[in-house]
Request: fold
Amino acid sequence: MEPVLHLDHVSKVYSNGRGAKNITFTVNRGEVVGLLGPNGSGKTTIMKAVTGLCQPTSGKITVFGADAVDQREEALAKVGTLIEQPALYENLTAWDHLVMAGRYYPNVDQARMEKVLEIVGLAPYKKERCGKFSLGMKQRMGLALALLSEPELMILDEPTNGLDIEATVEIREIIIRLAREKGVTFLVASHLASEIEKMCSKVMVLYEGEMLSCDSKEEALRLNPSMEDYFLAKVRDKKGSVVL
Reply:
């Protein structure tokens, strides 16, 4: 197993006491790893620390062998991100967005732009303004932008949040297909246990800034009928078997 991302006792605590505390885990190449927890559990904080949007209070983050703080440019060179909702200009087309983003990557050409639109299913709509896109189409546009530089690691924060059933399935299938066919590694945060169960090969439970467990999906479901039951079992263990 080749490590792509490693967090070693990473903490990021804000002035209000919230954040993430003493987080340690490894993501290996080709895995789809899920961060499962409610809002405020520390999922987004971890992703922001990995992508350089905030600096850890303590601990070390290594991405492709490079320190995410001291060697940030090297560490993030092969990383694509979609944290929270994509920032799109309503009056620009899907193609316009890719052209603008492509200026930051020396190896991105027109063929690559066409390819990412095909991957996310937006090729027929490349000349449409993003202001006319549905929420699901906007999420797929965000994925297209994150995939533009051919990243080997994708960091996705709640990629299916707020989407209808059809759009949720579309996003999930894109993630699974890229992992299986292209070997892209994913770290995906969600508060939806069912989504983590359907798309991820490994799951970490986060609760109130702490990581309660890190198991393969098979191990998580070995003694639990569903990922939801697995999550509840871990939280109840932490709370001393208090019924939720």
